[in-house]
Amino acid sequence: MRIDVVSIFPDYLAGLRLSLIGKAIDQGLLGLSVHDLRDFTFDRHNTVDDSPYGGGAGMVMKAEPWALALDHIRQAGEPAPADTSGSLGAGPAKPILIVPSPAGEVFDQRIAEELSAAEHLVFACGRYEGIDQRVLDWAREDFEVRPMSIGDYVLNGGEVASMVMIEAVSRLIPGVIGNPESLAEESHEDGLLEYPIYTKPAVWRGHAVPEILLSGNHAAIARWRRDRRLERTAEVRPDLLDDRDDLNARDREVLDRFESSDPAVTE
Fold first, then answer.
1. What's 214's domain CATH number?
2. Whether the predicted model's global pTM rises above the 0.70 cut
3. Same domain, 154 and 40
């Protein structure tokens, strides 16, 4: 996968080169390029913003620097010309242009999984009051444009949101996570939150690990973990359980018992 990020604060993205994502970049599993939007300006102040038409507080990011930056990224990613005579193929997919915005669709694990299969993602990190809308409209010819929100709140810019999405997507690329089985039981992987986890010692400051986890009975442990996932989801994110048709009789029993009793997690 290739990822390009455009920002007026390119150093902000340095954290992506740490830990597992950094190793994936070093191993060639992931290509990451960060571009400074000011490199695509021509005045001596490297101006990227101007006042909004119609009045109002704040400034709006100018269209032309963004167009030049996106043109540069698109052209750098174009494959070498090939002989397509006699071929009716659709050609390569458009790069996906993700624009962090509180007005975008809400990013979640399903979208992360979808994007992890893409060949090329581009993140446009807006600042101030955002990017001139004409940039998004113009870019649709060469990009699949997807404004994206990571939650119902407002940040100073798109860098933090882009880093969140890049990490969530990149860790799903085969080879990035050392043990791929660890992805299977994470929160949100099947619409449930993760079960409580423990490590040594078995008793810590008077708090003991649930005995079932020390039993060696793998079937019973799996059921215990499933029950805790259901209970935790019912307590913290009951909306995730709405309209589910994949719960078996034991699952329903656990949820009914939880709803009719103290929601404290028990063994």
1. 1.10.1270.20
2. yes
3. yes
The whole domain housing 251 covers 203-261
In a domain, 37, yes or no: yes
What band does 92 get if pLDDT is binned at 50, 70 and 90?
confident
**146, containing H or E segment:** strand 144-149
8 CB-side CA count, 13 A: 17
- Going by pLDDT thresholds of 50, 70 and 90, the confidence category of residue 33 is very high
Nearest-angstrom CA–CA distance, 165 and 149? 10
Q: Which two tokens stand for residue 125?
A: 């990190």
- Return binding residues: 126, 150-155
User: Does residue 194 sit within a domain?
Assistant: no
Same domain, 15 and 100: yes
Which residue positions form the known binding site for S-adenosyl-L-methionine? 126, 150-155
pLDDT in tens, 165-210: 999 999 999 999 876 666 655 556 678 899 999 999 999 999 999 9
Whether 40 maps to a domain, the answer reads yes
Q: What is the number of other CB atoms lying within 10 angstroms of the CB of residue 46?
A: 14
CB atoms within 10 A of CB 109: 15
Last residue of a domain, one of 117, 146, 180: 180
Token pair in block for residue 31: 């290509």
When pLDDT is averaged across residues 206-226 and rounded to a whole number, the result is 96
A 10 A CB-CB count for 133 gives 10
**CB hemisphere CA count around 201 (13 angstroms):** 5
- Would you say 100 and 149 are in contact if contact means Cβ atoms under 8 Å apart? yes
